[in-house]
Description:
This protein is of the alpha/beta class. About 45% of the residues lie in helices and about 20% in strands. The protein is globular and about 55 Å long.
Amino acid sequence: MDVREILEQVQNGQMTVGAAEQLLQHMSGQLYEEMGFAKLDTSREARTGFPEVIYCAGKPDEYLVSIFQEMYQKNSEVFGTRATRAQYELVQRELPQVEYDSVSRILRIESNPAEKAAKRIGKIAVCTAGTADIPVAEEAAQTAEYFGSRVDRIYDVGVSGLHRLLAHAEAIQEANCVVAVAGMEGALASVIGGLVSNPVIAVPTSIGYGASMHGLSALLTMINSCANGIAVVNIDNGYGAGYMATQINRLAQRNV
């Protein structure tokens, strides 16, 4: 794509100004923003279709605030995962419009959220075995929504009450991709895998008693699943599941 094509797409409303800026930066060799302690990957969306996301946990306070400010200045939007309330309050002092969800621990600023919500595409079903798995599921669901996917939440449908899952079988089968979030023994992914024709992303969680070994039992169950079409992400990795589910959802919608 040359400069003229980029400008024409902006003029026709097919590309945002921010996306065009990143493409032009990429073409001119400006691949990242140097901050000394960090290098913001400003060309990531142009390369991959997804902007850079901030992993908040463990970042020094001054670094986190500076990164949020710089990314907001560049993109008018910022998305951060695994944030604490203390980090939210810190960022909010400088960026009052920032929002925090205490369940998913997501910290974000969105421009025109209602307009973005109306433009979400496809369908991803995010399912949990129990309510204790919801924080990880919400990380997946909100990640997918931020990246433009429509999400159906189907929570507390674990195998100890299989009728609860079967009551939602049709909605799950209609999804382009299913995210199955479960701790304990992690059997939910296998059951869903036997019900649907589209990909299932299994997310083991660290929920469970001693023998669950902080999610290892669920991880091993999901990796060893007899059901076909299941991919497994790391323990508690809701963000990774939401990202991959969005990739699958975009491909499915492209073929519609």
